Amino acid sequence: METGLYHSNDMEDYLLKHTTPEDKVLYELNRHTHLTSLQPRMLSGPIQGKLLEMLSRMLKPHRILEIGTYTGYSALCLVKGLAEGGQLHTIEVNDEVCETALDFFRRAGAEGKITLHEGSALDVIPQLDEVFDLVLIDGDKRQYPQYLEMVLPKVKSNGYILADNVLWGGKVLLNEPDDAYTKGVMDFNDMVADDNNLEQVLLPLRDGLMLIRKL
Ligand SMILES: C[S@@+](CC[C@H](N)C(=O)[O-])C[C@H]1O[C@@H](n2cnc3c(N)ncnc32)[C@H](O)[C@@H]1O
User: Fold this and answer.
1) Count of CB atoms within 10 A of residue 79's CB?
2) Which of 31, 93, 105, 123 to mutate to test the pocket of ligand 1 (most atoms within 8 A of CB)?
3) CB of 150 within 8 A of CB of 202?
4) Bridge-partner residues for 136, per DSSP?
5) 3-class DSSP state for residue 73?
6) Residue having the nearest C-alpha atom to atom 16 of ligand 1
7) Does residue 129 come out as left (phi exceeding 0), alpha (psi in the -120 to 50 range) or beta?
């Protein structure tokens, strides 16, 4: 975001300065991910993470589903709003990051509230016999339309789905998608917009966050 009035890094600093900082475990996980991972930008980070936490605290969900655990940052934000006795299911296909996620779930004292499923969401979701109050879609962008089709029957009426990266670096503005990732995101956004049983708002936060309510 360059307006001539400010530089995007200045705005990021301002947003951070006026957002409640990460707790100690999230800070250490953020740092650990930046030191050890090739793509640390995949992690939600303090601003989006705080929004996820606040949405979860408002909804007080009993069952949360997350597609795309990565190192566990967003799961640890969402779990903060979980209702008493609730459970967060999170799915990750890359076993190299699962150890880190499990380690930080333990450090946060959240291991009893989070079930990490190692495998592809496409295989795991059909096996989950649950009805979800809140879902975060943050896996492979090419598979977003499939995730939506698979999770919708498992979301309760008046339940919410959040989807990350729905602006895909601005590539959603192309007339035609030029790769499978962009096509996945564009198809997903159109599916949501065309579904009369959903209402949604696309927030231009970071790489775009879609908030969807199932009617
Ligand atoms: C953007 S990262 C998730 C970031 C995380 N939600 C956070 O905010 O910290 C996407 C993750 O989805 C995982 N992923 C990709 N395809 C998947 C699939 N089919 N099933 C489960 N996880 C998948 C990737 O391995 C990667 O760790």
Assistant:
1) 24
2) 93
3) no
4) 66, 162
5) helix
6) 140
7) beta
How far is 101 from 110, CA to CA, in rounded Å?
Answer: 11
- Partner residues linked to 160 by β-bridges: 134, 213
HSE-CB of 87 using CA atoms within 13 angstroms: 10
114's tokens? 């989070």
User: Domains plus CATH for the chain?
Assistant: 8-214 (3.40.50.150)
102: phi then psi, degrees, rounded to nearest 5: -60, -40
Closest CA to 20 of 41, 49, 55, 59: 49
From the DSSP assignment, how many helices (H) and strands (E) are in the chain? 8, 7
Helical packing angle, 144-151 and 180-194, nearest 10°: 40
Helix ranges (DSSP H) in the chain: 8-17, 24-36, 45-59, 73-78, 95-107, 121-124, 144-151, 180-194
pLDDT tens-digit readout, 38-50? 899 999 999 999 9
Query: Atom 25 of ligand 1 has which residue's CA nearest to it?
Result: 94
Residue 1: per-residue pLDDT: 44
With a cut of 50, list the residues of the chain below it in pLDDT: 1-2
